[in-house]
Structure formats: C-alpha cells, structure tokens
Amino acid sequence: MKRKYLYTALIAVSTFILVQSCSKSGGSDKPTDPVVNGFDRKTMLTNISTNIIIPSYTAYQGAVVNLDAAVTAFNTAPDATKLTALQAAFKTAYQLWQSASEFDFGPAEQANLRVNTNTYPTDVNQITSNISSGTYNPALLANLSAKGLPAMDYLLFGTGTDNNAILLQYTTDAQAAKRKTYLATLSTELKTNITTVLTAWNGGYKTTFINADGTDTGSSVGLLINQLVYDYEILKNYEVGIPAGVQSMGTTFPTKVQAYYSKISAQLASLHLQAVQNLYLGKSAQGDGSGLDDYLVQAKAKYTDGSSLNDVIKAQFATATTKVQALTDPLSVQITTNTSVVTAAYTELQKLTVLLKTDLPSSLGVLITFGDNDGD
Amino acid sequence: MKKNFTKLCLLSAIALSAASCSKDNKTDDAVPVYTVPTTYNFTNANFADATTRLGMLVEIQNVEKVATTGQVNSASAKNMFTNTGAPFVTAAYNTSGIQVKDQGVALYQTDVPRFIDSLTAVSQTGKVASRGVAGVGTSSANAATKYALTANGMNYAQVFNKASMGGLITYQIVNTMAAVNAGTIDNTTVTNGSTALEHAWDIAFGYWGVPIDFPTNKTGAKFWGSYSTQVDSGYHANTILMNAFLKGRAAISAKDKNTIQSQATIILQTMEKLTGAAALQEVKEVKESINDNIARNSRLSECYGFVYSLKYNPKKTITDAQIDTILALFPKNFYDLTLDQLNAIRDAVSKQYGFDAVKDIL
After folding, report:
1. Is A179 exposed, middle or buried (0-12, 13-18, 19+ CB in 10 A)?
2. Chosen domain end from A183, A211, A239
3. Which of A120, B3, B110, B220 has its CA 20 to 30 A from that of A284?
C-alpha cells in the first residue's frame, strides 16, 4: 500500500519534471516574429533591397558593361586616348564596387562575387604566367589572385612607368596580343558575374530576401549583418590595417593596399566606409529609410554605459569617417611617409568593429557565424 | 519517515529529470535512485592513460611542426608512435609502459608511418611550396603562418592529426561504447577502486580531451574537445557528449542498465556525426582562406583528413564506398580546387549526416 503510494508520487513528480525540462524550446524569447517591439523587419528588408542593394548592383553592373566595352575598343586599336578612357572606366567601376561588395549572400555567394571581383594584392607572377601560357581557368581558386579588378588595376596602370610605356605592352611587346586577350577575358568575366547576380535579384531573389524576415542564422537579417560585418572587416584590415603594419608589429606592406597601381586606395576606402554606413542607416538616394539604426532604436538597445547603442554607433561612424578622410592618395606612399595617420584611422575603425560585430548582433539576437581568419 | 520520503522523492526527481528527455524512458519497476553530477568528478574516476596518449600525440605533433623550419626527424616521430627508446620529452611517457600505436585501429597503425614519411620528404626538399613543387609555403594573409605541403598541396601534418582523432580517439571511444552496449564489460568486480566498466567509460571520456567541468570550462580542451566546441554553433556536440558521459557514468555506478546503454548509443553515434561536422567546419575554413593558396590547401588537407578518418570508425553508418566517393570529389592536386568542387564536398558530407540546414555555419 505504502509502496504503491510512493510510486504514484514518484510518477507525478517525474512527469512534472519531464514537462518542465522538455519545454525549453517552446518558450523562446528570441525575436522570431517579423514585428517585434513595433519594428517591422519586412519594411527594413524592402527598403534595403529596393533602394540600396539593387541600385548598387545596377550601378556597378552598368559601369562594368562600360569597362568591358572600353576594353574592346582599346584592344581593337590601342592608343593613348583609348587607354585613358579605359583607365577612367576602370576607376568608375572600382568606385561603384565599394557600394556593391557588402551583400555576399544569396546570388552573390553563389557566384562567389566578392573574391572573384576583388582579391588583392594581385599576383603578378600568376598573371604573367597566365598571359604567356595562354591558358586560364576562371574556376580555379588559385586564379583568384590573378583576376578581377585588382588584376586589371595592374594591367592598366602597373605594366609600365607611364601611359606611354603601358601602351607599348599592348602594341609592340612580344606578349601584346596575349595580354589583350587576357585583359578582355577578365573584363568579360567581371561583366558575366555581376550580370548573373543582378539578374537573380531582379528575378525571384528579392522576394526571397524580403520574406526571410526572421533573425535566425539563415534569415535575411542574419545574412545582412554577417556580411556587413565581414565586409567592414575587409575594409578595416585589408584596405587599411595590414598595409599599415598593424598585424605585423609595425612592418608595413604598402603594396598590399587596394588599387595599388591606380593609386585611388584612400578614395575607395572612404567610399567603402560610406557604403557600410548607408547600409546601417538604410540610407539611399531615396532618403533615410528603415535600417538597422531604426531596428536598434525600437529594440531599445543600450550600450554598456546605458546610453543608446545607435547613438554610440553613429558617433563612431562619424569619428572613423573623419580619420579615413584624412587618408591621402597614393595611400601606399602615406603608409611609408606618415604611418601614424593611417594607424590612427585603423584605431577608430577597430573601435567601430567591436560595436558592429559584438554589440549590434547581440542586441538583435543575431549570431555572427564566420570565424576569425587567423589560421592555426 | 515523512522526511525520508521527501528526500527520496527529491533524489528520484533529480535522476528522472536528467533522464526525462530520452525517448526510451520507461518507468521500470526497479528504477535505481542516483544523482547525475554536473561535472566529471566521480570519486573513483581514472582516465590517466587516455590523457597520456593524447599527450604523446601532442609530442608527435611537435616533432612534425619542425617541417616548416627544417627537416622532420621521422625516426623520433615513429618511435613516439610505438614508445620505443624513450623518445618523449615528458619523461613519464617514456616509462608509462603504454603507447599510441597498439590502441589504434589496424589501418591507422600502418597509415601513420606513411603519413610521417610523406611529411618528412616534404621537409627535406628545402623548396618553396607551389603547384607541383613540394616544400614550405607561406600564407598570403599572414606571413608568420607556414605550412609544409606536398607537390599536390597536401599537408600531412594535418592528415596525421585528423587520422589520430579517428584512428585512435574515435576508434577507442566507439569500441568502448559498442562493448558497453553488448554488455561484455564487467560492472561487478571492483579493481583499483572501480569496476572494469567504470574504468572503460572513464578512459573513453579521457580520450574526448576536455576538462572535467566542460563546457563551462574549456581550458586545455584538445583534439575532439577542441572540435566539438568549434562546431558548436551548428551542432551542439559539447552538451550532447558531456551530458551522455555524465549520465552514463552515474548510471554505471548505479547499475542502471537502460540508461547506460542509451547514453553509450548517444556517444557512439555522436562521434561519427561530429566527424562529419568537423569536415564541414573545415570547408568553411577553406572558404575563409579562399584566395590564400597555401592556407587553403592546408585547410583542405584537414577536411580530407576528417573524411578519410571515417574509415577508422568500427561502427560507422557511412560505407567505405561512400567515403571513397566523397574523397574522389577532392581534386588530385589541391592547387586545382574550384568552388564547385568544394561545394560538392560540403553537400555530400552534409547530406550524409543531415546537416543541410547548418552546413555553412558549422
């Protein structure tokens, strides 16, 4: 009798506990509803895709179409005028790329757009070898350092000490014909890649993007924040930090800057930072729409000192922008002659990294899923 | 009496709460009453032999690391493998009377000397690594990071590491868990303070390579202890394994056979799945160094090593033919890797282990 009573009690207790211990997954307090605290993520995703991503891709794609046409014109009858026009078309494309590099998910990830477009420093040996052998397989990852805008940067600005010398590489040089072919291959590849990505966005992907309005790992907010941070770290590390020697105990690597040969590195870094800020703010030619700033405000996100996280981030964007705008071209020269200005910019960029990579995602329940690429 | 009854209820509640999420939870007439601790601090636990063998592996790794700066002393590495001629820096290993080799699966025993020879040959070329040239290469992202690669881009130091995680560690853990399930290990006779089953379980835990208060404390976690953390964002192996090791060990001392077997099964299955997750983690790392030929090849070698190491698992669900099919997705020369190939490797592993939803974040 007593024994039976004990078992009944035991079962009752264990059932209660069973229910308790298995119910965790149901009562999640993560903001998985599209509207949380009055913030509509769908509106933000619509603004960002319609007014920022697609226009950025469209502008860059147009510039690359022009670039490819300029290559064709130049290759047909290379002369100084066409070289200058080609160089101008190249710079425009590189400038517009700064606003198009942040969205390496979905179609861009499929096309591996970022690394196919902008892997630097470029590998001159690999380029030379590809030109002389006449064989080039764009699918080989080993060719990432011999293609894209950085390879064209070298081919158009780095193959001679001035434009007269460069022109000879495409006219009288023994490899001139092969060099022209390689140049055309690269600009066509750039065009194909961005056209594929833009077509996908103009097709079904925009809807996919807007509808994935949760905050979990595969959601658009998750992808967007991860790529914003990833791309921002490229700016901080590869455009500024590593060339200035911050990862090599002061040993500088001036030739590792973005756009080393065309000498527009500082200008591009400013444009890039502006693009990251615009994405954060949801700001475009259509005005200041719904962005991550509004999301943080609605979520009442606080910085560690209790102030508004959005205010802190905006202030740090302003500070970093001032320092990055103090960089001058050629950045490779400034790194050598006035390193402290460059490292000062890096320092402010680094402060912004912590805000974007730690405070922002944790306030919004988003997980940063890429690792620190520091080798092992 | 009432006090005693309350105590009993509380105790059983703790035991039950720990076991309440497993599907095969039955209200057996003889449910033993015991507490599952939150750390592996069982008074009679002893896994020193496993810790020693992991330490031996680390010493072999140290010998292999020389490959990026000079010539590997292959005789020393092989002697460490068999514990011959007092080869270890840690004197206690030399006199331990135990070795790595005889605890590994047969294929691993013959693979390791081969891997050491391949790495040694690379270290002897004195050349800079490039496609078709064996030698030492430098990461383009970090000049301080160097790897010894074969002419095909394979880093045999990493292949050895991953092979050891499969051929020694997983093999030992899985074998133990299979024996636990078969009921062939004695849990009655106490020798040196514990039963054979308790000791075998402890050794398996020791091979995992984590501190006893893992995952709260991750200090010193190595081999699978390190990788279970690295994949934790997509596959929560840390908690799965720790809970199973704790619950199973408590169940062993309490002679709770059903729980012992259910936990052994969890551990057995998790070790294989974890290997798949680790291979995917390496795919992700390959992508993070995608334009760095040298680092990318080394990371691809890690991925290759993990996939290959599945062969060593005596209770694997994947077949040898399926493993060979995945290995065939790797390019013959790692310098020739394409993104499509890499994604094909990722998708094949992910499909095999049901990681499609998390394949890019592991």
Report:
1. buried
2. A211
3. A120
Task: Report yes or no on B329 lying in a domain.
Answer: yes
Q: What average pLDDT does the structure give for chain B?
A: 91
Paired tokens of B72: 């590997």
Q: Which pLDDT does position B9 carry in this prediction? A: 42
Q: In whole angstroms, what separates CA A72 from the centre of its chain?
A: 29
Residues A136 and A89 in one domain: yes
B13 to A119: CB separation less than 8 angstroms, yes or no: no
- Chain A contact for B335, CB < 8 A? yes
The verdict on A191 and A231 lying in the same domain is no
Q: What is the mean pLDDT of chain A?
A: 90
Give the model confidence (pLDDT) of A148-164 as tens digits: 999 999 999 999 999 99
**What per-residue confidence (pLDDT) applies to B361?**
73
Q: Which residues in chain B have Cβ-Cβ distances shorter than 8 Å to A250?
A: none
What digits encode the pLDDT tens for the residues B163-174? Answer: 999 999 999 999
- What pLDDT is stored for residue A37 in this prediction? 63
CB contact under 8 A, A375 and B142: yes
Looking at the structure of chain A, the number of domains it has is 2
Q: Do A177 and A94 share a structural domain?
A: yes
- Residue A6 inside a domain? The answer is no
Candidates A262, A55, A256; CA nearest to A149 is A262
Closest-CA residue of A relative to B130 is A142
Q: Does B291 touch chain A (CB under 8 A)?
A: yes
Longest Cα–Cα distance of chain A, Å, equals: 107
Q: Please state, for a pLDDT cut of 90, what percent of chain B lies above it.
A: 85
Same domain, A187 and A292: no
| Domain total of chain B | 2
Nearest to B275 by CA among B327, B325, B312: B312
End-to-end CA distance of chain A: 65
Nearest chain B CA: its distance from A334 CA (Å): 22
- Asked whether residue B40 is domain-assigned, the answer is no
Which of A141, A237, A246 to probe by mutation at the B interface, max B CB count within 10 Å? A141
Identify whether residues B219 and B306 lie together within a single domain: yes
Question: A139 and B339: CB-CB below 8 Å?
Answer: yes
- pTM here is 0.81
Are A132 and A218 in a shared domain? no
Domain-located, residue B41: no
Q: Let me know whether B237 and B299 are in one domain.
A: yes
Confidence tier at A372 by pLDDT (50, 70, 90): low
User: Could you tell me if B222 and B84 lie in one domain?
Assistant: yes
Residue A139 identity: A
Residues B5 and B86 in one domain: no
What's at A83, amino acid-wise?
L
Judging contacts by C-beta atoms under 8 Å, the chain B residues touching residue A115 are 290-291
| A143/A135 Cα distance (integer angstroms) | 11
Single residue among A211, A244, A259 that ends a domain in this structure: A211
Look up the ipTM and state it: 0.75
Closest CA of chain A from B204, distance in Å: 27
Domain that holds residue A357: 214-371
Which two three-digit tokens encode residue A54? Answer: 């697609």
With contacts defined as CB-CB under 8 Å, which chain B residues touch A139? Answer: 338-340
In this model, does residue B1 exceed pLDDT 70?
Answer: no
Domain span at B321: 46-362
Q: Is A287 helix (H, G, I), strand (E, B) or coil?
A: strand
CB atoms within 10 A of CB A366: 23
Are B262 and B58 in contact by the 8 Å Cβ rule? The answer is no
A199 shares contact with chain B (CB less than 8 Å) = no
**pLDDT, tens digit (0-9, with 9 covering 90-100), for B308-360:** 999 999 999 999 999 999 999 999 999 999 999 999 999 999 999 999 888 87
**A28: which 2 tokens?**
């999640």
Calpha distance B228→B206 (Å, rounded): 14
Same domain, B322 and B207: yes
